[in-house]
Structures are given as C-alpha cells and as structure tokens.
Design goal:
Its EC number is 1.1.1.49. The protein is of the alpha/beta class. About 35% of the residues lie in helices and about 20% in strands. Helix 6 runs antiparallel to helix 13 and helix 9 runs parallel beside helix 13. The chain binds 6-O-phosphono-beta-D-glucopyranose.
Amino acid sequence: MSISCDMLVFGGTGDLTLHKLLPALYHLHRDGRLHADVRILALARKKLDRDGYLALAERHCRAQVARGDFSPDTWQTFAQRVDYFAMDASQRSDYLRLAQHLGQANGRVRVYYLATAPDLFEPIAANLESAGLAGDDARIVLEKPIGHSLDSALEINEAIGAVFPEARIYRIDHYLGKETVQNLMALRFANALFEPIWRAGHIDHVQITVAETLGVENRGGYYDNAGAMRDMLQNHLLQLLCLVAMEAPVRFDAKHIRGEKVKVLEALKPITGNDVLDKTVRGQYGAGRIGGHDVPAYYFEPNIDNDSDTETFVAVKAEIDNWRWAGVPFYLRTGKRMARKRSEIIITFKQVPHLLFAKGEVNRLVISLQPEESISLQLMAKAPGKGMQLEPVELDLNLAHAFSSTRRWEAYERLLLDVIEGDSTLFMRRDEVEAAWNWVDPILRGWSSYYRKPRPYPAGEDGPEQAHQFIERQGHSWWQ
Ligand code: BG6
C-alpha cells in the first residue's frame, strides 16, 4: 500500500527527528516504500531556511545511516521531499501561517508527529484544531512518555481526545516496532509447542533486562525529570511484559492485541507504600569506565542537578494476579551506563519434578532483542564420556542469519509506515497507557516517601549491589 501524505514533524531539529525519524524515512524512500507524493515538513523554532535545514539533516543522516546504505544520489532525491518551517508550536497565530503554507489537503493524509516534550502535546492539538488542520484526514503521533503520572496522562489523553478520535491517535513505543519483539508474538502464537507450558505450572520466573551503555547524552533536561522508571520501565519494559504474558488474541489486529495487553496491565499487583523497599531497587550511576573510557557520574552530566535523586537504574519484581501467572515473578530491570548494551527476555522453566541426575539445571528460553536478534533454548544434555555428566547446551536460532538476505528494518521505519497506512496494531491505546501509569504511580509515590536516595553504582557495571541482593532474597539471580 502506498499512500500520499504530508508528514509534519514537530521538534524537527531535535535528536529524535535527526537521529531516528529522518534516517527511517530515508530508508523507506530508498526502498521505494513511500508514495512519490509524500512530503516531509520539519517544524521547529530555530530560524533556518530550507537549505540550512537540509544541511543539518544530511549531516545527521550520514552519521546515522549505515555507510553502505547512504548514497548522495539517493539523498538528493530524498531531500526533494523535505522542507522546513520555522514556527513556535505554542503560538496560535503560527498555525495560521502553517495552514497557508500547507494549502488544501485534497484527500492527502496528514500526519502530525509530536517529537516534543509532552507539555506541548495539548497546545499543539488545540492549535491544529483552531487553524482547521485537524480534519478527518489528520493523524497525530505522540512520543512516549505520555505525561509523567496517571493524572497528567489522563489530562493529555483527554485533551488530545477532544480533537482527534482514538482511531487517529498513534502513541508510539518504538520497542513494539523492533523485529524480535514482533517475533515474540510469532514464537508464542505460531508454534503449538510453547502454549501448554507457557504458564505458572511450568515457568519458574521471567526476567526482562534492558541495559544500555549510553548515559543521558544531551537529554539531561528531560531525563532528570523522568528517570529510568518513566523513561523506560513505564513503557518499553511493561510492553515487553505484556507480550510475554498476554493471552492469545482472537485475531492479529489492533483491537484484539491491545485488548489482551491491557488485561495484563490491569492484573499487575500493586506495589504500594513501603513495599517499594522489598520489591524495587533504584540506582544512579557514578563515575566509571565504559569501553575503555572514563565517564563522569550522572550528577556531573550536562543539565543535571548536582544533588539529583533521579534514578538511572531500576529493578522491580512485578507479579501478575491471574490464573496463568499467579506466583510467577517477573523481574524487570533497566539502566544506563551498564556493563554492556543488551535487551533480553529470559524465561526460566521449573526443574524436572524428580531429579535423576546430580546436576539440577533448568531449561531456559533466552530471547535476545539487541544487539543480536536471537532466540535460544537451553536444554540439558549428556556430555560425552563415561557417566551421566549433564551440561546445558543451546538450541540456537540466530534471526539475523536465518534471514540474512533481508535487511533488518529499524523500529521507526516500520512504525512510520504503519501510521501512513493507518495500522495502529503496534501503537499503545489510551487505556494501556493509563493502566501502565496506574501501576507505576504508587511506586513513584512510595519512592518519594521511603526511598528517596538511589543506590550508587559505578558506570560500566551491572547496576547497584542491592539489585543483586534483591533478586537473591527471592531465591533467584540475574541471568548473565
Ligand atoms: C528511548 C529512551 O525511548 O529508548 C532512551 O528515551 C533510551 O533513554 C532508548 O536510550 C533506548 O532505545 P533502544 O532502541 O536503543 O534500546
């Protein structure tokens, strides 16, 4: 399907646009996925003309797109689609200028991508409406986090919902656009093998780790008000948890998939009051070494308060109160400036009911989302030689090798195309976002009463010592 559209990106000079959105659109253009008539209009306050913006965009695209994928000729044709419009998104009068600049939609889809801070979501939607720019052909894309609490998310959802119907609101969580995340659904729902054992009777516990080596980069202003809980766990990690835990949807479509995910979020057992001391760990990186380089402590990063209490690491024991998952802990952890970049889901199965061999190892399913995309099942096998010496061996599915002739799409490529084509399956519905905040809010409140100071950890290590003690207290350990 190829649809003619105007893609308007608010926050057009920001990191997200320059590092992710434009490179994704460039790839879609290069692969012939965009209708010849798709126009991209970057919007921001900076006083730039079109040439100035294109120079900025090209510099970033060259740096972001893999060397073999960038071609100056392709860039020239791509650049013809791109334009820049300087405006203040909070100024109503600027939208009248924008409307004039755009002219009539004439049946073209209009996508407004809000790559901005959430406090601009409401004014942008209201201003679009008052300038007559929010008609039936208009869609709005909101970047996470939607608000910083349940109340603020409700307010944003209410305000956006007053202008755009839910079917035309796309709340993006780029983790849902990652190939392996979608593969998780294929693994669960296209293979009969797993369903009978995908439940409390057979699964001992689940771990979801999203570790980054990056620090806060130049996003200190945003990050210091968000922290790892709002930036990562409330959205990316909870979405992964939903895909592991949800029931099979009746159909593979937006309504049914999102309906099943929301049931998982609603079944999460609340963590309230001083429960936070037992069930969560918050940490903050100090100075350390990453990849052979010294890196500063979090509170010495640009735009961070020197006495900041913001967490850059969080670990939580989540429990799902339903028939399938009663009694199975889901350990979630995410952090910046960790030892290495990896995102993985580990499903640990229960031990065999009666031990015949000395080694009581268990089966594990390891789903690695990045840096490698792989799925491996750890089984016990007899080592060669006399006696029944058992060792774990891995049944490996390396997805990058299995599909080596096909280029792996970046999450934003897939999601941008979905918005243009009007498919909201991989976007968060309003009730999902609210249910996620509903679970996260009491933890944040518990922290402010009982757990203000995050535990320090040196950059380049796997989080604070307390995160290891916390999981060991439950009789488990983080899978390495
Ligand atoms: C973003 C967060 O949503 O995800 C960033 O705001 C984080 O802080 C990023 O670095 C991680 O994404 P990925 O795709 O690199 O795992």
